[in-house]
Amino acid sequence: MAEQAPDKITPRAEDYSRWYLDVIRQAGLAEPAEVVKGCMVIKPHGYAIWEKIQRALDDRFKETGHQNAYFPLLIPESFIKREAEHVEGFSPELAVVTIAGGQKLEEPYVIRPTSETIIGHFFGRWIQSWRDLPMLINQWANVMRWELRTRMFLRTGEFLWQEGHTAHATHAEAVEEVKRMLDIYAEFAEGHMAMPVVRGVKTDSEKFAGALQSFCIEAMMQDNKALQAGTSHDLGQNFGKAFDVKFQNKAGLTEYVWQTSWGVSTRLIGALIMTHSDDNGLVLPPKLAPVSVAIVPIFGKGGDEAAVREAGAAIEKELKAQGLSVVFDVRDHKPGFKYFEWEQKGVPLRLEIGPKDLEKNQVAAKDRLGTAKEFWPRANLGAHVKEHLDRFQTQLFDRAKERRAANTVKIDSWSDFKDVFAGDNSKFVLAHWDGSRETEAKIKEETKVTIRCIPFDSPDEPGKCVHSGKPSPRRVLFSKSY
Amino acid sequence: MAEQAPDKITPRAEDYSRWYLDVIRQAGLAEPAEVVKGCMVIKPHGYAIWEKIQRALDDRFKETGHQNAYFPLLIPESFIKREAEHVEGFSPELAVVTIAGGQKLEEPYVIRPTSETIIGHFFGRWIQSWRDLPMLINQWANVMRWELRTRMFLRTGEFLWQEGHTAHATHAEAVEEVKRMLDIYAEFAEGHMAMPVVRGVKTDSEKFAGALQSFCIEAMMQDNKALQAGTSHDLGQNFGKAFDVKFQNKAGLTEYVWQTSWGVSTRLIGALIMTHSDDNGLVLPPKLAPVSVAIVPIFGKGGDEAAVREAGAAIEKELKAQGLSVVFDVRDHKPGFKYFEWEQKGVPLRLEIGPKDLEKNQVAAKDRLGTAKEFWPRANLGAHVKEHLDRFQTQLFDRAKERRAANTVKIDSWSDFKDVFAGDNSKFVLAHWDGSRETEAKIKEETKVTIRCIPFDSPDEPGKCVHSGKPSPRRVLFSKSY
Questions:
Q1: What part of B 84-143 touches A (C-beta under 8 Å)?
Q2: Which value does ipTM take for this structure?
Q3: CATH of domain A408-479
Q4: CATH number of A16-71+122-276
Q5: A291-387, which class in CATH?
Q6: Model-level pTM?
Q7: DSSP string, A246-309
């Protein structure tokens, strides 16, 4: 990149949506494809974060007995139509291939918006007996949903994700799987992304098209809106019946299998940005940062450049031995340019080493949240850096959790509810709901607020619906959302 | 899976094509999708091999300074048409999206058959100055080429691959990159796949549509046909000009960039199968085997089952500590069933442990190429297994190299040439060629034989073309091919 003044990042307070796009641009995470409507290019820094996410989740999927496989991108159009709710949910968003190899196709193919149908078809071929169950499959893939309003990472025509698809002999086992995978998502969100989440179940009108029940994790972004960060669905026997996936049980009787599906996508990168970043750019948790530490050499006038290079390389080696991803930035740019760039890219820790530091046997250190430089002794630097990054990871999580606590309220009257959500405002609101689809729809229509989930930890607490005044057994989570 | 007699594998000598498909089925690598023409499902064991391939190659790409990114699946149809040779090469194989989100598209999109065009477009946006060069990008993705004749892994409508795309300031640097990546492919093929390859350059009629020159690695399969296992292209300024990718050089002048692209695909799994496997099923090199060692417990009548389980678990742990991927197969099947299954799946080494082995402080061992069981002492088993697998890897490579040497011949007369390739026969034939496209076409028409490459190590050796009798400066490599 030419050494030029980088573009500025719009402050959050001025224009939150603009800020989000500015952070993405300045960190080099992605850019709109423009020539392909609603799609984006994931640039190297963004893709490197996705690789970190993939590696961590994939390890957990495999530890819990899942195997990866790959199914066709194209799905016969008729497959989508076999499950009534599924077709209703996905039809409007399909991209359709009508010509291939120079010929018009007799039956068009759709580009997978999700793979329940095509995988259901193969489960039908692979599963005969209870001995074939559970079948635990995961796929890392691209999917396509033609959306009208797109926003990078959060909602794009094409996106990358993983989709788990499993089949079980009993409903109880399927439900156990749905919960297990939701827990893995929640632990990943909190442990790796440093992003606190609410676990819960979706209402009927918000659940996956074709599921009995959808479980989800919901996170609060910095504008206090909710972002659905992962879902895990109990599909019941709906797809088993649509694709004739039967097995012989131990008693010799033929039954339909019970299926689940669960997924997270590159949307998580959007969630990371909006959970931690600030007006200076991206902020990344060390566990997912492609670069954890940037070492910047200072070649002062008359200083011993060779000695600085040698010291920098030695530090790089020491930190790498700690398993950290490190860049020793010897590019031909001024230090200030490098500081600025690493800051915008969200590198958790910057170390500087110059002739004075060599004399004093120290390094200068500044972490991405810190306001002032510190000086750390050169001895045992590797271990010290590692400890510091662990604390940084915790600090990010605590900060996000405090922010969420400060912006979560219990509301019991409709006028208070409307006040909280006035204009573009949002919060996490715990309020009573009468359980009806009609009330949910009215609330959404009047305020753009949806029920994000019925939290698992919402205690039994009889009350009255915030909108209809009808009885309610417990509070649910309302918010505006992405 | 129900405990039933598995289907048999057709011997190679009886029907080589059938053998190939039988190995794939019995090893659980893939199956034809059928409902999606020419496409396949990559099943868990096949996908696990692909993951091993990905990990090893990706590490090498990153070591050599490349970064991963992700570009849109869909490409505006007009993009494909901008480079004259490119459109001619790929047009017949395109899958076209004409409807999206319920609307007919004004300009259709094609599903990427390869991404030179769309990536060229973005390089045009990202590259301004010599400081932006070299730009070294790689993408792991699915691509689609609507083929008439398909064969699993070797040629399918959709396949998975990686495509490297780089831009450079000079032609010399681009050519250096093209060679560097070909060398990485060749080292991977020989070092990891245990598959010897010939490195060389394609003739003009066999090169990539839009390239100045294509370098390739060619491997000999067990039917003595060639399989192109990887290609690396010098694109010159062809795509730079088509997509207006210019930069300001150090002298302040504007030039077009010099580009390269290079790729390998899931085809490598087909190459693995046809290089090493036998009439009993898959044979895998340890470096790419998802499971290197299968430990099978023998619970003899009256034996101490708990002690056998404990010993098996201890061995599993010891081998895992050596970095080996191990399965301790405690499934409720008879040992013979397990032996058979692991053999068909190509597991390099099987260990058995039963009450008698416990008494004697030993394990029974049989590797995938071995004819008889050996008994190895329990002490230091981990180190011993690791050494054995290293030798096994070398053994596979040597065996393949010997087979290739035995089936590579120099031919100087047209009648000998026709004899070698009579019927469905093939070999690697080193023969003289007059360098003309016409002669190449005639040879292909008369014998179905193509010039696989002009090997880099083909010495200067003036001679006469095997077909036309015209002068030739050196021998080239002829073979039938996949």
A1: 91-102, 108-109, 111, 118, 121-122, 125, 128-129, 131-132, 137, 141-142
A2: 0.96
A3: 3.30.110.30
A4: 3.30.930.10
A5: alpha beta
A6: 0.96
A7: EEE-TTS-EEE-EEEEEEEETHHHHHHHHHH-BTTB----GGG-S-SEEEEE---TTS-HHHHH
